[in-house]
């Protein structure tokens, strides 16, 4: 009979271990993305991947392991097909009959940074962790941004 009943020591089994990052170990980087001429969906997908940290080999789903992203030239983003004329942004006021639709062209004219912000927001998790990730997204309509002190690295598209 094997085991500790027969006086023998049980054999040590070598099992691979998985390391998980903690918030103290993670060091966040900064990336800068120029949206000029890029497609909205492709750019939003890649930004969401970086915000969630899925571009790193040490991704941990329960910890915010993503990087910060600065997007410039949001007013020069493009959409494919007929989305520029047919796309609507919908929200509800909370009152009966309070559904509001805003055409893409109006949003692009008034707040072009909100187009990229909303596209990325809808690709992130819908919980506290997703809201924390979204705070690391900084979108600007023009080419100027106040984050030069963070020395953002050029953004790499993962397409």
Describe what this molecule looks like in 3D.
The chain has 159 residues and is α/β, with parallel strands linked by helices. The chain has a single domain, classed as Ribosomal Protein L13p, Chain: A (Alpha-Beta Complex). It is 26% helix and 16% strand. A four-stranded parallel β-sheet has the order 5-2-1-6, covered by helices on one side. The chain has a two-stranded antiparallel sheet with strand order 3-4. Strand 3 and strand 4 form a beta hairpin. The model has no long low-confidence stretch (mean pLDDT 90).
Tag the structure with descriptive keywords.
four-stranded parallel β-sheet, two-stranded antiparallel ribbon, Ribosomal Protein L13p, Chain: A, 6 strands
Mean pLDDT: 90
Helix content: 25-40%
Within CATH, the superfamily carries the name Ribosomal protein L13
- Broad CATH class: Alpha Beta
Distance between the termini: 58 Å
CATH fold-level assignment: Ribosomal Protein L13p, Chain: A
Lateral arrangement of strands in the main beta sheet: 5-2-1-6
Main β sheet profile: 4 strands, parallel
Strand content: 15-25%
Please give the domain count: 1
Q: Nearest-angstrom radius of gyration? A: 22 Å
Can you count the helices? 5
Low confidence ranges: none
SSE inventory with pairings:
Blueprint (H helix, E strand, L loop, with lengths): L29 E5 L5 H13 L15 E5 L10 H4 L1 E5 L6 E5 H7 L1 H10 L6 H7 L2 E3 L13 E2 L5
Helix pairs in contact: 1-4, 3-4
